Task: structure prediction
Amino acid sequence: MSTLLTLSRRELLKAGGALVVTFSFSNWRPEHVWAQTPIGKPLDKPLDPADVDSFIAIHADGTATIYSGKVDVGTGLRIAVAQMAAEELGMPAARITVIDGDTGICPDQGGTGGSTGLTRGGAEIRQAAASARQALLALSATRLNRPASDLTIADGEVRPLSGGAGVTVGDLIGDRRFSVKVDAKAPLRSPAQYNVVGKPLLRPDVPAKTAARHPYVHDVKVPGMLHARVVRPPSVGATLTAVDDSSLKGIPDARAVRLGNFLAVVAKGEWAAVKGSSALKATWSEVPRLPGSAGLDRWARDGAIDRDQSVVNKGDVRGALQGASKMLSASYFWPMQSHASLGPSCSVADVKADGTTTVWSASQGTHGLRNNLARVFGLPAEKVRVIFAEGSGSYGTNGSDHVAADAVLLSKTLGQPVRVQWSRQDELAWDPKGPQQLLDLRAGLDASGRIVAWDNQMWLPMQMPGARALLAAEAAGLQQENGRNAGLLSQNGDPPYAADAVSVVVHSLKESPLPISNLRAPGKIANVFAVESFTDEIAYAIGSDPVAFRLSRLTDPRAVEVIGRATERIGWQARVSPNPQAKQGSLLVGRGMAYARYKQAENYVAIAMDVAVDPATGGIAVRRIVCAHDCGLIVNPDALRNQVEGCIVQTLSRALHEETTFDRSRVTSVDWGSYPVLTFPEAPAMDVILIDRPDQPLLGAGEAATAPVAAALANAVFDATGARLRTAPFTHARVRAALAASTRRA
Amino acid sequence: MPTYRFRLNGKPVSVDSWDPDQPLLYVLRDALDLHGPKFGCGLGQCGACTVHVDGAPIRSCTTPVSRVSDRTVMTLEGTGSLDSPDKVQAAFIAEQAAQCGYCTNGMIMATRALLARTPRPTLDQARQALAGHICRCGTHTRILRAVMRAAQA
Result:
């Protein structure tokens, strides 16, 4: 049986479900956070970030719950936030459970991105915990009849410093409200007193992840839930002209749902939805409208410009270039790339007839998603609850927001809860991409090798305010904002080294080949690739060792230290590239390094690596990587190290292999064969040096170590071969071409 | 509707499927409520869905349910538990060898298979054993350390 359901937009906005849904927690850890907040019951909890109770609940048994608006996408945010709160509250981190990203119970702290999970999210929670500490001290002063100045909190108990009986925090406040505001002046514990922050406490999610007990969004099951697969158009912008639902014959309980150009197959069983979506015969009208990824650098250079914007402007670059005794120039290009989540995006939505809506989503911005879904689908925002459930790593805005919209559209249309699971092809073809970046760099040097001028022209897609368009809403013809936002793309375009005149200009392209979003360390990976490759090109041009060149143009001791530590650990020998003793059997070996201060204001990171290049194949083997990383105060060194290692390996993958390819009609890199990522045989030996600075503010670490990777790699390949790689990814073919073009043939 | 019988994590099970080509993955996740094996690609390319059939690791996303009739299937749930992790799980916990953890199922099942045939693998053998498994978060270094730790346990 199959029925084709077609609704007009008007009907769609009226449609809604009538099913009363309760959420089943069978099979999941009973203590898991979702069980504490039954779906469908009114939630009586403060959400205003001005209230301590919005963030913290202390229970009668002495445990505590922290409500975080920022989410943990496998990054260790939960343990780090628990440590920061535990330190202020005076209780062990093990007694704290962190609930993240549930818009029904967690305050809106903004989306999780830009490495702000701890610097903003954690810091707000820390201040709430410090405020709670003052409230606990005041309460116990009354209870114990002691001055607050004679009291301290340790191990979950308020104790008189002068001795005598104390009182546990559970006894003091257990399951009652603090009813106090967050006090921005509540004193924070001094780092010298820390005994929780700085410890490598184990992440609570890892054991569950090894034992199939960690709940992912993909695992959510709601009674009466239907499974759906969206049938995407065969090419970008195609129009649906006909659907032959008889093609679903024989697939149990499967039916096609069509809303304008939105087409999905819905079934009771997941496999029926999968099979139905490939069996369904649909006719589309296609117009090729993409530029094609081959030659995308030229497309960007020739593209229509919305405006030029000067983002760094120091001194007279033009004049200094004219007066320079030596002038260098080079162009660099970074391709469009996918977030390429290992598990394709998934969401469950339950839209009831009265507009009450529950969405389970792995979005990194659940509050923003809630507001956007409410706006686009005509739902009252106060009745929409987006519950964060971890997905596969997202590294920015992958397909999660889109799949949530797919699920809401279908649930609203059908009046039943719907689970939508994207396919591998959906994720790689339709996740919003990290944009392509083209950079032209010029430098002028005086006779002594001093940088007198630095000019960086970058071509970036124009950004526009508003929420990004949701694919489902676009296909169904719903009105929505058509924002374009991919993060702060232009940072780190200026050199961190002494230069007399510096100019960075952004040429904002009117068009983007494909929809874009923030992809880990937006813009910075390509910018530092260009800046730090070019730095090595300058060092080479004046016959200088790349490390000595950098150190002589840096004064910040933290910068000097990371470069010193990384290069010392890898055994850097001062000399000019290329390596005079590169030949090692049939291979060419070399070393390279790069440095960045993230966003020119945050972490200091230096990366050095040893590589071997096979000139016959063009293959690059990264043999060893050393990273020195300074992010100020370290909250959890092991969780930090995990993030830094992940930053490096993932960026190696992006630099070596990854490019979203497309022809005039469609994305063609749609599986792990056409969009390859780094494999285990390629994984380098890695040595991460963490520099802890308890006297310095903590900085986020989910992105910074990505920035110098590609340049360190390109510099190492130059050292090994004398061939300069200026276009990523560094595929075998590109390396062979660069070798052929270089004067120093292997 | 045809019924398929096999042993799952030590117990006999029977499941009905309208389609003999239905991949084992959907049977395990949807009908049998096991969430260890994950959907990653449906193409046998990433390894997230790995389970053991008669002791050998297979991709459950491309293995039809009809092909496991009368055979023995083990999923991650059939290894150690949260309270009592086996040596591979314990090694992954000790090394904190996960970020998002979506690939962890496949990594652990592949490691078990490796150690069953090569109890003391070299690091290179460990790399090769995981060559068909994708980790997108970049926890490769830790996962390899966990494999070597499990081999020593």
The radius of gyration of chain A is 28 Å. Chain A touches chain B through 67 residues (CB under 8 Å).
